[in-house]
């Protein structure tokens, strides 16, 4: 029996590319050798995705326990035994958390369209994965994208995955972080470095966490607090410690252009951000800021910083998606479980079509990152 970690993969919005990228990722040799993947989805939807990918793998349904609670002790052992099967035609394993087939509407969701059926299915898949991970039945989860409008149409009023995870895990200090592995950014580092740059000893990629997330730009200044910014810095410190980063060099973004220009363009830097940074002046973590974002990002890509704290969504997302759209991984910090996802969306314009096949590179990277984090040895927090 293999001791590879079990990674639960949620299908996300079944009207989008989630099922397709999951099938392609599950069949990837690197994923197969790194972990035991378990797709959480309606089996009929997953079979359609297998057919779309022209795959020949058999779909194997993992049954729920008699009491319908997948976190029972027997479920982990039975699941491990099933997933440990090895052959040239290793099947795609599927677990459907629906408790009543009569009310499971995932198969009725129209492709490439927003629907309550797809939104509810995505929510149920995620909820089940969280329960499995918290109970130790799986070692981590990697989520395919969901659609926020579909989620709301189904009556689940959350801004996205991150907030659902935080709510169901009962945490208040959490953050969305985008992570680019060193293997996918090392070449770019050489391109952006100038003669003024030191040959920085960057070895652990580039990670950008966000203080505020799914909210309007107009609301951002009012949502920022020194406590909130400091909490995100601490979460970044813990993550860098977890992946074995010794340097732990963190840069904190300014909110306003030119870092506020000494108050000419706003006072959030002096009033909120600087006090948060100063709390770490005597710690073992190197925290710098607030820094003007236009130059900070170049310095980070060059290798001067391991982690960056962005004040709002697009401040962190735009540079990461520009330099590593298919390689970046979304990691939720502050949870008692490991959760990753690709950074792309549901891509309704490309879904369920042979003419526009979906690229699974982001999903593959998310699964491999989840595997590494699940396997990472526990390190003392300093």
CATH A-level architecture of the largest domain: 3-Layer(aba) Sandwich
**Could you describe the largest sheet, including whether it forms a barrel?**
12 strands, mixed
Strand runs, count: 12
| Total number of domains | 2
User: Could you estimate the helical fraction of the residues in percent?
Assistant: 25-40%
Average of the residue pLDDT scores: 90
β-strand amount: 5-15%
Radius of gyration: 21 Å
Major sheet strand order: 3-4-2-1-5-12-11-6-7-10-8-9
Helix count, per DSSP? 14
Describe the structure concisely.
Helices cover 39% and strands 15% of the residues. With 382 residues, it is an alpha/beta fold.
Give a structural overview.
It is built from 14 helices and 12 strands. Helix 1 packs across helix 3, helix 5 packs across helix 7 (about 160-170) and helix 10 (about 225-240) crosses helix 11. It is globular, with a radius of gyration of 21 Å. Strands 3-4-2-1-5-12-11-6-7-10-8-9 form a 12-stranded mixed beta sheet, with helices on both faces. It folds into 2 domains: about 5-170 and about 340-375, Isopropylmalate Dehydrogenase (3-Layer(aba) Sandwich), CATH 3.40.718; about 175-320, Isopropylmalate Dehydrogenase (3-Layer(aba) Sandwich). The protein is about 40% helix and about 15% strand. By secondary structure, the chain is α/β, with parallel strands linked by helices. Strand 11 (about 330-335) and strand 12 (about 340) form a beta hairpin. It has helices at about 20-25, 30-35, 45-50, 75-85, 115-135, 150-155, 160-170, 180-190, 220-225, 225-240, 270-280, 295-300, 315-325, 360-375, and strands at about 5-10, 35-40, 60, 90-95, 140-145, 175-180, 205-210, 250-255, 285-290, 305-310, 330-335, 340. The longest helix is centred in the first third of the chain and has 19 residues, at about 115-135. The relative contact order is 0.17.
């Amino acid at each position: 029996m293999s001791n590879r970690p079990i990674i639960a993969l949620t299908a996300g919005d079944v009207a989008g590319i989630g099922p397709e990228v999951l099938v392609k990722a599950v069949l990837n040799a690197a994923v197969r050798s790194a972990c035991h993947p378990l797709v959480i989805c309606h089996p009929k939807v997953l079979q359609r995705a297998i057919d779309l990918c022209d795959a020949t793998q058999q779909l194997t349904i993992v049954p729920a326990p008699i009491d319908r609670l997948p976190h029972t002790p027997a479920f982990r052992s039975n699941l491990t035994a099933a997933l440990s099967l090895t052959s040239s035609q290793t099947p795609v394993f599927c677990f459907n958390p629906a408790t009543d087939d009569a009310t499971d509407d995932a198969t009725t969701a129209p492709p490439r369209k927003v629907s309550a059926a797809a939104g509810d299915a995505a929510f149920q898949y995620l909820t089940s994965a969280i329960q499995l991970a918290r109970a130790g039945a799986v070692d981590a989860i990697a989520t395919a994208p969901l659609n926020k409008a579909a989620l709301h149409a189904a009556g689940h009023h959350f801004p996205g995955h991150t907030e659902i995870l935080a709510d169901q895990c009962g945490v208040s200090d959490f953050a969305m972080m985008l992570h680019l592995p060193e293997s996918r950014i090392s070449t770019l580092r050489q391109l952006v470095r100038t003669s003024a740059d030191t040959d920085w000893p960057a070895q652990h990629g580039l990670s950008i966490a966000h203080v505020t997330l799914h909210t309007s730009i107009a609301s951002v200044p009012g949502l920022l607090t020194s406590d909130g910014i400091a909490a995100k810095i601490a979460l970044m410190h813990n993550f860098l410690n977890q992946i074995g980063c010794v340097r732990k060099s963190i840069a904190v973004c300014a909110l306003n252009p030119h870092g506020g220009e000494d108050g000419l363009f706003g006072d959030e830097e002096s009033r909120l951000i600087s006090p948060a940074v100063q709390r770490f002046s005597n710690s073992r973590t190197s925290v710098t800021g607030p820094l003007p974002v236009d130059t900070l990002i170049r310095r980070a890509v060059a290798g001067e910083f391991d982690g960056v704290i962005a004040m709002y969504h697009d401040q962190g997302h735009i540079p990461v998606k520009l330099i590593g759209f298919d390689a970046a991984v979304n990691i939720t910090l502050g949870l008692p479980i490991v959760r990753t996802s690709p950074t792309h969306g549901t891509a309704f314009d490309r879904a369920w079509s042979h003419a526009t096949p979906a690229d699974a590179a982001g999903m593959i990277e998310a699964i491999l990152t989840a595997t590494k984090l699940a396997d990472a040895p526990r390190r003392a927090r300093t």
